[in-house]
Write a structure and sequence with these properties.
This protein is of the alpha+beta class and 465 residues long. It has 16 helices and twelve strands. It binds 2-oxoglutaric acid. One of its GO terms (molecular function) is L-ascorbic acid binding.
């Protein structure tokens, strides 16, 4: 591990002290919720501060709405000050893969600085902080690791910051250890950064450090490269799409033992009623709505058993933020899946909601991954799927889940889980379970929840970040 010298540490502290001093001012002047004089938010910073200080520009009476805004502003400034203090402490001489670091905290701190609603505020703060900080950090690999790791965990959307970090890391990563290279790779993969020069540098540096690499780091590094289509085949080959036979056979037994309706004799597919209440379903949808998580469903890896591309027109929302794991409805689903399917909870992927409006569908596809699927590196193959319907669809409104090779079609019924294995007893991907979501025909919306079970534990920093 690269240690920071005392001088370096103090330079960081000075930078962060400066950052601490400007952040509250920037927060006050730029946060959209605080724009209580009409012109301020559009003025450049200096001017806006001046306007704020001129006598007579403040309203003489403070109504309840304004008082609430001021109170929120005070809280936000206090929060930001605290965040800067904590961030500085966390950055000093620790690593994001090391057990001591409080990564959720770093993540929350970044989220504090980059609320989605405050685009205007985030850029000046970050540009200033990073432009000040990064040149000093160039040779401090450990601090770069912590910074880029928390940027990734917070899903920092600020492109110039990522480009700045990519420039620095591509140049400096030769000095990094195998663990630090892994941390860089994870962060850039999580951010979806495909820059060739960066990945060439990371892989070249790693080629000289393979002897230092732990098994966990190896899978993380291999996953990261594959995730942005920069497969490290020269270093590690391809991931295996065949699950361990023991885990696969156990999963088949667990599904066979589930309560509920047996839908076919060829493969154990069960329809288990009453897994979630309607209130729990609504709570999950609200979670995605409130956090504005819905986006066009990914078509990456969406193929049928023959490898033909699938058509997918729905929207999805992945409940992967650290704070969402504490939500009672999320927890209820994870506990149910873990108990009934007899796997530890960390075999369960982050829950994925799907939403189909009228006309939307997902054509024939399989849920298991092929060897080039990056996620196979992390938790191995998907051994099972539980699809929980969050609302019912009336007869004639489409939206059924159909396994055409098995002649099974299921109409969505609120709270019921449709469960099937994705592998056979020897661990090979099961082609018979290719399935599709038929188009919704009425003026209504179908909501469902994908609960995917892996063959082994998913690293928490990937599944939960
Ligand atoms: O919505 C459905 O009925 C099926 C969903 C599905 O197969 C998926 O999201 O992978």
């Amino acid at each position: 591990m690269t240690q920071q010298s005392c001088g370096q540490r103090w330079r960081h502290r000075r930078r962060w002290a400066l950052f601490a001093a400007v952040a509250p001012v920037l927060l006050l002047s730029r946060h959209p919720k605080l724009s209580f004089t009409a012109t301020q938010s559009t003025l450049p910073l200096r001017r806006s501060v001046l306007v704020r200080c001129q006598p007579g520009t403040q309203p003489s009476t403070i109504d309840a709405g304004l008082a609430a805004k001021l109170q929120a502003a005070k809280e936000r400034v206090a929060q930001a000050k605290e965040a800067v203090k904590l961030f500085r402490t966390e950055l000093c001489g620790r690593s994001f893969l090391s057990p001591e670091i409080n990564r959720p905290l770093l993540t929350e701190i970044f989220i504090t600085f980059v609320p989605k609603s405050a685009a205007a505020m985030r850029e000046p703060i970050l540009d200033k902080a990073l432009a000040d900080l990064i040149p000093d950090m160039r040779r401090d690999v450990e601090a770069l690791v912590a910074l880029v790791g928390s940027m990734a965990a917070a899903r920092l959307p600020h492109e110039p910051a990522w480009q700045l970090m990519a420039d620095v890391v591509a140049k400096e990563c030769r000095a990094a250890s195998a663990r630090q290279l892994t941390a860089f790779a994870w962060a850039f993969a999580t951010a979806g950064e495909p820059r060739q020069d960066l990945w060439d540098s990371l892989k070249a540096a790693m080629a000289g450090k393979l002897a230092e690499l732990s098994p966990d780091e190896q899978v993380t590094f291999a996953w990261s490269c594959a995730e942005v289509n920069q497969h490290a085949r020269d270093l590690f080959g391809d991931a295996s799409a065949v699950a361990a036979p023991a885990a696969s056979a156990q999963m088949l037994e667990a599904i066979q033992a589930l309560p509920g309706e047996v839908l076919t004799d060829q493969v154990p597919i069960r329809l288990v009623p009453g897994v979630l209440t309607e209130e729990q379903g609504q709570a999950l949808i609200r979670l995605a709505d409130d956090a504005q998580l819905w986006s066009q469903s990914s078509r990456r890896g969406a193929r049928d058993a023959e490898g033909e591309d699938a058509l997918r027109t729905s929207s999805s929302a992945v409940l992967s933020a650290p704070s969402m794991f504490g939500n009672p409805a999320v927890q209820a689903v994870r506990t149910w899946a873990s108990k009934l399917l007899r796997v530890p909870e960390d075999f369960v992927e982050a829950l994925q909601l799907v939403r189909y409006r009228q006309g939307q569908q997902y054509s024939t596809h399989v849920d298991w991954g092929r060897p080039q699927d990056a996620s196979l590196w992390l938790g191995g193959q998907r051994t099972a799927t539980a699809l929980i319907y969050l609302n019912s669809l009336p007869d004639g409104c489409g939206g059924e889940t159909s396994f055409d090779r098995l002649g099974v079609t299921v109409r969505p019924k609120a709270g019921a889980a449709l469960v099937w294995p994705n592998v056979n007893a020897s661990g090979h991907p099961q082609e018979l379970v290719e399935h599709r979501a038929l188009p919704v025909l009425c003026d209504t919306t179908k909501y469902a929840l994908n609960v995917w079970i892996r063959e082994k534990a998913l690293p928490t920093y990937v599944g939960r970040a």
